[in-house]
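This section describes the prediction task in plain terms. A model, or a person checking by hand, is given the sequence of a single protein chain and must write out its three-dimensional structure as a string of tokens. No templates, partner chains or ligands are provided. The sample shown here is typical of the held-out split.
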Amino acid sequence: MPWTLPLRPSRRRLLVGAAGAAGAALLPGCSGGSDPSDADTGVPLERRIREGAVRDSERLLERYEATTAAHPALAARLAPLRTAVAAHVAALALPGPASPTPSATGKPLSAGASGTPSGSPSARPDPVPPKEVDALAALADAERDLSEARTVSLAGAPGELARLLASVAACGAVHTYLLTATPTPGAAS
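The expected answer:
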């Protein structure tokens, strides 16, 4: 039988890759020079990371809302996870005087309300699968992908933001588990 690559990388491979990326990101920090990426864009690294993380969480929140709208029977199961994602948006938002994001208020997020460009095709959530089990699997995949991306982004994040991203990534991993676990009949949600 010919050797083939797995469709999804294993957790061990992802962790090794994240550790390698973290090590590579830390080496230039020892030189004492300034971060050239900040000089190129004029936007501080922490701000760019936070804004990207907020956009990603808002997109995930939109997926939860679309799934709940398409499958109302899942609303009770998804409500605590959706609330946690909305809390992530608020926690990752830049500190300072800003209006609260609609997603953090618990109200449905309308197209373009998140501050992301609503006209770009990548800003639109994927369609919700017609079967509930497939819709849950799609949400689990989105949570897993975002959790893995946040784990990788830890390498370049400043201390406090890195801790926050690690916490949010861990929460995403728990959400993935909860979305793929079969609920016990009669168990409290």
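For orientation: Residues 1-6, 21-39, 99-122 have pLDDT under 50 and may be disordered.
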